[in-house]
Request: fold
Amino acid sequence: MNKRTALYQQHLESNAKIVDFSGWDMPIHYGSQLAEHRQVREECGVFDVSHMTVVDVDGVEAESFLRYLLCNDVAKLDQPGKALYSGMLTYDGGVIDDLIVYAMQDGFRLVVNCGTREKDLEWINKQARDFEVWVLERPELAILAIHGPSSIDKVCSVLEQADAEAVRALPNFKGVMCGDWFIARTGYTGEKGLELIFPQELAAAFWEKLLAVGVKPIGLGARDTLRLEAGMNLYGQDMDESVSPLAANMEFAVSWEPQTRDFIGREALTSLKQRQLSGDLPVLVGLVLEERGVLRHDQRVVTDKGEGVITSGSFSPTLNMSVALARVPAGSNSAQVEIRGKLVDVLIGKPGFVRFGKKVFQPLAQ
Amino acid sequence: MSEIEKFKFTRSHEWVCLNEDGSATVGISDFAQSALGDIVFVELPALDAALQANEVVAVVESVKAASEIYSPVSGTVSAVNEGLVDSPETLNEEPYTSGWLYKITLADPSELDALLSHSDYQDLYQ
Reply:
């Protein structure tokens, strides 16, 4: 029997179509994925992402442990509440998972993917043996993401006044503890918004309050098209253990400085960096199909520099055309995609198509 | 007999309905549109195309996946629903009426006899 979040009944009451998601019964949509996508871009919606895994790390060596475990540097988190996106790498520089790490009042909190939970916990616990730390999974916590232009106003309207003031004062990528709730300005949609991590027994009542002020439930289908429009990677599609962050548009999450910091995968990444500098490492790019049709995961890409592959593709409801992330040879200036045996021209540019409701994709000048 | 009782269905979720002029109209079932989710693109056959039954005739793409449509019957395409090009969501909204895909002049009307009735189809896919 699949696992269910504390909001399973609420999903059914909102007419969710439930699908299996890595062993969880999760809502893929509540009627129309397209309408939900637009709801988040134009107003506000709430996602139940309680299937994701929360892991707390604390102990006297928690910081030095995470500085070794992650390719981004948690020493950058100079205040409680601050958030950092990072990869967790193999010794070969492949991506075991991507995650968000928050500095808490004591220690750190990691939120990792649901589909990689077991291998992540195994890896973290194995690496933790050499450090004076403890690692504690927090399955009793619910996670809600509320995103869209009016999301902060909506959430604050149902919080206690003091909490609402603290939340309104948050800059992007920062969170705050409100009692035993953690509320942060992070997310996976390219819109402003909040992620709330709190005791799951309070989830149903809070969900109802949000719906009562007009926040609409959004399924995991729209979550995928929103993150794709935002140019954000999906683990298992855009990168995995066979791909380094350098070939997955994740170099912004690799902290090379200080050079004295050893982290798992550093040595491998350093030699991959040499390959990248000589143009020998593929890159993750954005593609836009201006003709009719839909780009899909695994379609073949042919560029002026060789062959590549689409890692994530779908229809972009905001641009009303299809967009994709693709891994192609470095320096590619033009591209075609094979759709049902035919090569069709696509525009190529940096990954990222929509931010804050507006088109940001810029095709390379050919 | 209600309108839907005149429809015949395939196990691959197409429907076909005989028109008064002897041609037939083809579409996809309500079950199929619901399973596909929001439809964003439809590739229709060419007018006058000669089709064999069970041949791929069209492609329907939803946000989720691309799905091939198989012609339930043999014949010649006599009309295509151009309205779907700009409004593919009609397929979700009205799968049995405005969301039709194409009309076909039947090569062999007896092919219809081998297809499922609406109630048999519903028994299989509800």
Notes: The longest strand of chain A covers residues 306-316. Chain A has a mean pLDDT of 97.
